[in-house]
């Protein structure tokens, strides 16, 4: 008995209904999640929705050489990105351009104004002791004297006390947990307990009310006297060329919203010493406050600094939180503080979050100046989006026309698969916006258009394999099952190459090109899902219908039109009759 010939393994039909139900459930779940989330459209990037593009240029600090390098630039990008994202502008785009520029793109419809203020705040963060404070307008006399006479110091102290009123200077007092609390409504001018326990200690503290830093020089005093903090141009030049180890002058607003000017000592801490800061509501007062946590080294510095400041008279018991040469806050200290501190005052939710953001992410390795600001109008973005959608519609229409003309009835399966793929792509893009900050920009739209061709290519591969089997003389149902394994391998290899290219492009590029790569990779994965769970099961079901099974001329599977061979099972080998004489 002859052994049966080994042929290609035929794929089992399986249960196509289950696969179709699975893809239907997935579609319903994704669509329901989209509506429940409240987002029914994908987030648009700056080139489609409009917004603001800011170019920042790095500058070397005085005494720094070769500070502008790739390491510091990448660190600055990370910090600025965290700072902007901390405001909820998660779709903002931050990237380097050239050797010394950083581009920040903030889409329209987000916390754009607040984010622009945060991006513009790009210099170093320092904690400096306050030596003198006065109203922001120019003054005819210095607020503090460098003279060593006690009477002059008393006059300077009186002036400082008159101008730093209780309503404008926050104070710091310890809480039950050892945290520092500043209160903008109460200013305690009482000396700390450490300086009033003994008479001899008090006598020693009185003639030396200045911190350990050297007195302000005559040049610095002149600048301080002439400084007008109400003038934006003068505020922008304050502190230029001053090193952290030197005394400086600065401007800042008090709790009443009025400008004040300060003489500040050398920096005791910088932004790198702050581990974390959060804006919260004080449970006792119900007011917005900012809680700070210092690093291990920062905690030691902070404790040492507050220990010295707590022994001084106002306003020299204050420390100023200085960012970009401007005093963000200047709480006073009455006792030595630990690793945690709480800053309070006349904060709104927005101002508290701004200060917390500054404290958390403000320690940039470089100083940046705003080089240019470009605003993209929503109208221009809408035109680009409309052009992209028109291009996609034209591409889709051409693909459908080709499928209808060449594949006829099979084009219905392909069009249904394209619609399912489009629905999955749209819902996922919408859900990925709030989930992973995905934004649909113009390159991403291009990636979606390219994906139409990739998806259509998978259908064509499968249909041609089925047609090859029909040409071999097989009926449609076994032809579909025999064609699937070969088509499946080709589709997987093709999609793997496309996905690999998208992954490499996503890793090695930055900015908008990543949007193209991400969209291409996402749609490639969805192509595999649609072909396996929708196109193949639907083709299996359609093969049972007489319209396709009998090879109707409009089905796209007409054996005559395909040039099919006679059925293989009807082929017989004939043998000639044997002549009896020859036998």
How would you concisely characterize the structure shown here?
Helices cover 47% and strands 16% of the residues. The protein is an alpha+beta fold and 583 residues long.
List the helices and strands and how they pair.
Layout: H1 16-36, H2 46-49, E1 51-59, H3 70-85, E2 93-97, E3 101-107, H4 112-120, E4 125-135, H5 150-163, E5 171-174, E6 180-183, H6 199-205, H7 218-226, H8 232-237, E7 248-253, E8 259-264, E9 269-270, E10 274-281, E11 288-294, H9 296-309, E12 319-323, E13 326-329, E14 340-344, H10 349-361, E15 367-376, H11 378-407, H12 410-436, H13 442-471, H14 476-508, H15 512-542, H16 546-549, H17 559-562
Parallel strand pairs: 6-14, 7-13
Antiparallel strand pairs: 1-3, 1-15, 2-3, 4-8, 4-9, 4-12, 5-6, 7-8, 10-11, 11-14, 12-13
Helix pairs in contact: 1-12, 1-15, 3-10, 11-12, 11-13, 12-13, 12-15, 13-14, 13-15, 14-15
Rounded to the nearest angstrom, the distance between the terminal CA atoms is: 26 Å
- With strands numbered from the N-terminus, the spatial order across the biggest sheet is 4-8-7-13-12
Q: Kindly provide the radius of gyration, computed on alpha-carbon positions and rounded to a whole number of angstroms.
A: 37 Å
- Number of H/I helices: 17
Unreliable stretches, pLDDT < 50, 5 or more residues? 1-8, 142-216
Q: Helix amount, in percent?
A: 40-55%
Strand composition percent: 15-25%
Largest sheet: 5 strands, mixed, barrel
Give the class from helix and strand content and strand pairing. alpha+beta
Which overall shape is indicated by the principal axes computed on the Cα atoms? elongated
Mean pLDDT, all residues? 76
Please provide the count of β strands: 15
């Amino acid at each position: 008995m002859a052994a049966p010939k080994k042929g290609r393994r035929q794929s089992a039909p399986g249960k196509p209904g289950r696969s179709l139900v699975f893809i239907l459930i997935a579609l319903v779940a994704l669509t329901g999640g989209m509506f429940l989330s409240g987002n029914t459209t994908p987030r648009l990037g700056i080139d489609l929705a409009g917004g603001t593009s800011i170019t920042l240029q790095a500058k070397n600090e005085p005494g720094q050489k070769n500070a502008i390098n790739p390491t510091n630039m990448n660190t600055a990008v990370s910090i600025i990105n965290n700072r902007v994202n901390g405001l909820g502008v998660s779709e903002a785009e931050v990237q380097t351009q050239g050797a010394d520029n950083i581009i920040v793109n903030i889409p329209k419809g987000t916390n754009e104004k607040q984010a622009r203020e945060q991006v513009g705040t790009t210099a170093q963060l320092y904690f400096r002791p306050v030596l003198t404070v006065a109203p922001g307008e120019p003054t005819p006399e210095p607020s503090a004297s460098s003279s060593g006479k006690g009477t002059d110091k008393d006059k300077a102290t009186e002036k400082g006390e008159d101008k730093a009123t209780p309503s404008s200077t926050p104070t710091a007092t310890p809480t039950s947990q050892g945290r520092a609390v500043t209160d903008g409504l109460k200013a305690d001018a009482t000396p700390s307990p450490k300086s009033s326990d003994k008479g001899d200690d008090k006598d020693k503290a009185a003639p030396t009310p200045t911190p350990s830093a050297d007195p302000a020089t005559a040049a610095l005093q002149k600048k301080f006297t002439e400084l007008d903090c109400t003038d934006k141009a003068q505020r922008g030049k304050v502190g230029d060329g001053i090193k952290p180890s030197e005394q400086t002058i600065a401007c800042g607003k008090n709790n009443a919203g009025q400008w004040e000017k300060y003489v500040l000592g050398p920096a005791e801490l910088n932004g790198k010493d702050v581990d974390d800061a959060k804006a919260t509501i004080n449970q006792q007062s119900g007011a917005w406050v900012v809680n700070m946590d210092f690093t291990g080294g920062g905690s030691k510095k902070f404790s040492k600094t507050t220990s010295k400041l707590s022994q001084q008279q106002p306003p020299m018991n204050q420390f100023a939180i200085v960012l970009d040469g401007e005093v963000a806050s200047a709480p006073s200290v009455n006792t030595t503080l630990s690793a945690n501190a709480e800053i309070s005052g006349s904060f709104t939710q927005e101002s508290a979050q701004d200060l917390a953001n500054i404290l958390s992410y403000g320690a940039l390795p470089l100083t940046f100046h705003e080089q240019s600001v470009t605003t993209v109008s929503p109208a221009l973005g809408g035109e680009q989006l409309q052009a992209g959608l028109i291009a996609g519609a034209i591409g889709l229409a051409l693909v459908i026309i080709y499928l209808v003309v060449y594949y006829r009835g099979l084009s219905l399966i392909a069009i249904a698969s394209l619609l399912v793929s489009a629905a999955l792509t749209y819902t996922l893009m919408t859900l990925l916006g709030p989930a992973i900050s995905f934004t649909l920009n113009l390159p991403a739209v291009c990636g979606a258009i390219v994906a139409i061709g990739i998806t259509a290519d998978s259908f064509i591969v499968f249909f041609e394999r089925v047609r090859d089997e029909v040409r071999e003389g097989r009926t449609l149902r076994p032809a579909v099952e025999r064609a699937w394994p070969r088509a499946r391998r080709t589709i997987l290899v093709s999609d793997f190459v496309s996905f690999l290219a998208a992954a490499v492009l996503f890793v090695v590029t930055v900015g908008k090109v990543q949007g193209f790569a991400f969209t291409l990779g996402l749609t490639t994965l969805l192509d595999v899902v649609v072909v396996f769970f929708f196109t193949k099961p639907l083709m299996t079901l359609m093969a049972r219908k007489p319209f396709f099974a009998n090879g109707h001329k409009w089905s796209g599977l007409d054996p005559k039109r395909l040039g099919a061979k006679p059925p293989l099972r009807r082929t017989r080998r004939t043998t000639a009759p044997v002549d009896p004489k020859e036998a």
